[in-house]
Amino acid sequence: MILTYSYKLYLNTSQEKTLERWLRTCNWIFNRALEQRIKAYERRKESVSYQDQQALLTDWRGRMDSLRLVPVTFERDALRRVDRGMKAFFRRVKAGQKPGFPRFKPFRRYRSLECLAVAKYLQGDRIRIPNLGLVRCRGRLLPIGKQRGLRIVHRESGWYAQIILDNGVTISPREPQTSVGIDVGLASFATLSTGDKIDNPRFARKAERKTRALQRRASRKKKGSANRRKAVQRLARQHERVASQRRSFAHAEARKIVDRFDLIAFENLNIAGMVHGNLARSIHDAAWSLFLFCLIFKAENAGKSTVAVNPRGTSQECPRCGAVAKKSLSEREHVCPCGTRLCRDHAAAQVILARALRGNGGLNSLVEEPASVAPLVAVSASRSDETRMPNGSDEPSM
């Protein structure tokens, strides 16, 4: 199993300047490599491969002293990023999706270095960075395993190291004994088929007043000035703080659910297509994608199952009789002629679970039903439509 562990780095001034210089150099290599691929196709209709650009990098390092000061493993990472971007572009073109051609990156958007080599990077409370030496760090104890790579990330709050670890453990899926359906929303962050609700923390809404004040201060500063740069850094730090709160919340709530249930069902929502209306800001703030991602990988690591079901009509269908009870978004209660009366989100969560169970061999015995709701109607597994979810150049200035 491949895992990533993050550590806060405590650099001295010389080490920090060295890493910034490496970032600038790798950013320059990224842009020049992308430029070469574009010009080769425009002028000669030729495709340039990763191996071709590795040979070019060797030539550059022979002619430019500044490139030889940076570990070649970090420079090759810049070439890999270009290669991945081009391959993803052609894959999307072939699939008929929005292509999204790779773009040149300014320095402020090139924020990490990666070394994919097996080595012992973490040594006690120090991390060994190639060509830089041991750097003091803080983080959790690293489990036993093979350290397969090192990533250095620069954020507004400082520098971080991420160690890619292969612990050699293979988790076998186990037979589910308990199950739950989850309906994500905005009034409540999530509602479980058991009736439990997770409150929506609305981190961005709560921080909105401070964020707006910082945005106004940054906009009033003269462009290119030191004061504007400091104001922008304070604003970026505020956004990073909100993102960190969301991330901690998603991990904590996903862990609670994975510890309680063996089979977890949720809607296979097209979240990217939902963030273009009046609720876009609230949906972004809820960060459903992050929560579902945490849910999936934590369940896989625990040998448990996740199922993404077709979201069509889950809030309109009755969990008891299966009849469709049309209701607008403002109607928060599900009322059916069969006598079922439930919170709209609670009813949707039960429908989600029922669809998941039909797609997993009709495991209806796993449904945890409240006393007020009759057993779900058994449906043949052959009717399931759900899918299981597993995303001539100048030398750089130093």
Low-confidence parts, pLDDT < 50 over ≥5 residues? 361-398
Oligomer: single chain
Structural class: alpha+beta
The top-level CATH class of the largest domain is Alpha Beta
Strand order of the largest sheet: 2-6-7-1-5-4-3
Give the helix level as a range of percent.
40-55%
Overall spatial form? globular
**Portion in beta strands:** 15-25%
Task: Summarize the structure in words.
With 398 residues, the protein is α+β, with helices and mostly antiparallel strands. The chain has two domains: 2-166, no CATH class; 179-383, Nucleotidyltransferase, domain 5 (2-Layer Sandwich). Helix content is 41%, strand content 19%. It has helices at 13-44, 50-63, 65-68, 72-95, 203-206, 208-220, 226-260, 280-286, 288-301, 344-358; strands at residues 2-10, 112-115, 122-123, 126-129, 133-138, 146-155, 158-166, 179-184, 188-192, 197-199, 263-267, 305-309, 333-335, 341-343. Strand 6 (146-155) and strand 7 form a beta hairpin.
